[in-house]
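Researcher: Next sequence.
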Amino acid sequence: MIVIAIAGMNIISSANNKSKIAISVDYKYYDTEDSLINDADTIIVGEVLDTFTELHNFNKTETRYTEPAELVYTIANIKITRVIKGEYNIGDIIKVKQLGGEYNGKKYIEESTTQFLKKQHGVFFLQTYKTGSPASLLNPVQGHIKISNSKVEANKHNKLFNNIANENDLLDLIKNKVNDK
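Model: Next structure:
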């Protein structure tokens, strides 16, 4: 279960009269690659086909809250090109949600989330739900490794896998760690 603890929301007016709402959320931080891999029920390689924003209604199985909650999420449709862990197949489309986005004239911003872009390629460490809800990154910074032209893009905020520059080396390492479990 992903635990979402909303620390607060601030409404900020911008020059173009669109309200910006800053959302502060606490996510689990992973000290080791093994802990990230172990917590993910699904690890895939894929490409973002498109994104859309919606108000997502949570149920009790997705959060620690006893009452349903609503938050704005950007949902990415990701075409799976490789399955490292989980019950998906190459060619499947999986929906992955990220906190924030534009909804009803307001922009919701979560400080550690960088929204996916169309055609973005990468490795995704996910938690999936049997409820039909879109999957979640385990952590908005550590749960995705961006890949461009078969090269791993360094992320100064993510110390995991930071010594690997080549996509094949990264995928081999992750696959070996999954198989060792």
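Model: Residues 22 and 71 are 12 Å apart (CA to CA). The chain has one domain: 5-179.
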